[in-house]
TrEMBL record:
SMART domains linked: DEXDc (SM00487), HELICc (SM00490)
Domain Helicase C-terminal: 421-579
Name by which UniProt lists this protein: RNA helicase
Stretch list, region Disordered: 1-86
Cited Pfam families: DEAD (PF00270), Helicase_C (PF00271)
Entry keyword set: ATP-binding, Helicase, Hydrolase, Nucleotide-binding, RNA-binding
InterPro entries assigned to the protein according to its UniProt record, in alphabetical order: DEAD/DEAH_box_helicase_dom, Helicase_ATP-bd, Helicase_C-like, P-loop_NTPase
Gene that encodes the chain: MRH4
Amino acid sequence: MGRTGPPRSSPSRMVLSDRVAHPSRRDTEGRESRAPRHRSAGPFGGMNQTFARIRERTPDRTSRYAEARGGKDKRGDRKDERRTKAMKMQSSLATISYGHRTRTKASVAEVESFDQFDLLPSIKEAMSNDVLKGMVDIKPTPIQRLAIPALLGQDTGRRSSRIKDSNGRQEFLLAAETGSGKTLAYLLPAVDALKKAEAADPAIAAYREYFDKQMAAMREPGYTGPREFEPHPTAARPKVVVLVPTAELVDQVGRVAKALSHEVKFRASLFSANISAKVINASMYSPTGIDLVVATPHLLSSMADSDPNILSRVSHLVVDEADSLFDRSFSPVTTAILDRALPSMKQLVLCSATIPKRLDSYLASEFPDMIRLTTPNLHAIPRRVQLGVIDVSKDPYRNNKDLACADAIWSIGKDAPRFESSTPGEVDVKRIMVFVNEREKTQEVANYLVSKGIDAVALHRDTSEQRQSEMLDSFTTTGPMRADLAAAAIPPPGKGRRSLPNTKVIVATDLASRGIDTLAVRHVILYDVPHSTIDFIHRLGRAGRMGRRGRGVVLVGRNDRRDIVAEVRESMFMGQALI
Ligand SMILES: Nc1ncnc2c1ncn2[C@@H]1O[C@H](COP(=O)(O)OP(=O)(O)OP(=O)(O)O)[C@@H](O)[C@H]1O
C-alpha cells in the first residue's frame, strides 16, 4: 500500500489527466518498466491489449493527432494544433495516446460470456437470473473483461497484476467511459472474494454450528433457555464497502448488490441520507451479520466515529466516482475511511469515467503501485452520441435560453413517432435530461418548462424525495414508457393550453446526476455550456449508455465559448478522447 500519513492537497476535478493508464514505474522485482515494443496507431490501436504501457513522456498534441490519423501530414498537424487550442486553454480534459490504453491478453479479450470468468457458480447464476435478467446473449464489456480477471487475481498477462505490498494488498484504478458497466466490474470480484473468505472463516463456521444447535434447542418442547442469539461474528463489521457520492447512487449500486445477494446469499445494506437511522442501525447490528455496505462517505465516516470497529474487518474498499470522492469537498472523509480500513484491507478499487490531472498525480504519489486499467475509449464521447448546437444569440431566441430549451424539448416531443407503441391509443414517452451549471438554476428552468406545458422536475436537494425518486425511476428503467394518446394530443397553437405529455424532463447539474444509470435517456440538453470537458463527458454520458444511441443539444449564447463547443463536437465526430 503506497499511502502513508495524511494526504497531500486533494485533487481538483477540473483537469483531466493524459497519463491515466500510466503504469507504476516499477515491476514486481522493482525494475524500471520499459517502453512497449509494439504500439499500434489509430483509435482502435489499443484494443485487445491488457497492459497500459505508457511512455514516460506525455506525447505532444501533434504527435497524438498524427498517431490517431495514422499519418504524418504536416498540414493536418497544424490544423489539429489550432483545433485543440481552445480546449487546451480551458484545460479541462487531457489525452491519453491510443497506444497507451490498457492492453488485453488475447485470451481475456476473447471472453464472450461471464461463464468464462473464474467466478463462483452462484454469481454466474445471479447474473442471468437477477442482475441482467431479461437480457439475452450478455457479453462482458471491455472494462469487465479487463477488470474482473485482474481483481480476481487471475493471470492477465501483466506482471504488475501480481504486485502486492508486504501485507498482500493490491490497489486498482478502473477508468472507463460512462455507462460501460464499471459497477459489475468491481462488484462481482468483491462478492466472489467475500464468499470465498466466508467459506474459509472458522468463526463463521462455528457460529453456523452454534446457530443450528440453538435453533434446534428452541424448537424442543419445554425449552426455557435464552431466545436471543449471540451476535454474528460479522455483525456491524462489513467486509466489502462501496463508497459513492450521492444517496441516489447508494440506491442504484445497492440495487445491483441486492439483486446479486438473493442468489449468492450475502447480506447487503445501504447507508445514505434517504434511509432512516433506525433502518440503518437495525441492518448494521443485525444478529445475522452484515457483509457488504454501499454508503456515502459522510454517513459512514460519522458512524465509524461512534463505532470504530465498523471498519475493522473491511477487506475490499471500492471508491466509485473516485474523482468526486477525492475532490476537495469529499477528500477528508474519503481518506479518513481509507485510513481506518487500511489495516485489514486486501484490495482498494478506485473507479471513474474521468481522471483529472490532479487526481492522477495524487494517485501516483500516494499509491505508486496502483494497477491502472483503462479502456480504449476512456475520455471519449462515443460516436453514437451526436451533438447539435442551437445558436441562442440569434432570432428567434435573442439570448433567451429558456425559450430555446423549451422549443428543443417540444421539437423532440413532436417529432417522436406517435404510433410506435404496440398498444393502440398509447405513445412512447421520451425522457430528456437538461443540464445547467448552477444548482440554483435547476428549479428556475424546471418552472419555466412546466409553464410551457412540459412535465419537468428539478433534481436537487430540496426536491421532494418521492417526486425525485419517481422521476429517476422512470429515467432508469429500460422498458418503454407509455402515455395515453388522447392526453398526448398536442393542441394547435392558440387552442387551449399546450402541453406535451409524451416527454418527461429532469433538470439537473451533473453533480446531482453523476453515475445515475439513465438507460432510458436518448436526449440531453446542455442548457449551459459546461465549465469543463469533464462535465461534457458526464452530462452527455447520461445518454448513449451501454451501446445505445443518443443525441445532445447544446445551447450556445452570446457569452458562451463557441470555440470549445466546436472542438468538443469535432473530437466527438472523430471519436477521439477529449482533452
Ligand atoms: N455486460 C453487460 N451487458 C449488458 N448490459 C450491462 C453489462 N454490464 C452492465 N450492464 C448494464 O449497463 C448499465 C450501465 O452500467 P454502470 O452503471 O455500471 O455504468 P458505469 O460504467 O458505472 O457508468 P458511469 O460512469 O456513468 O457511472 C447498467 O444498466 C448495467 O446493468
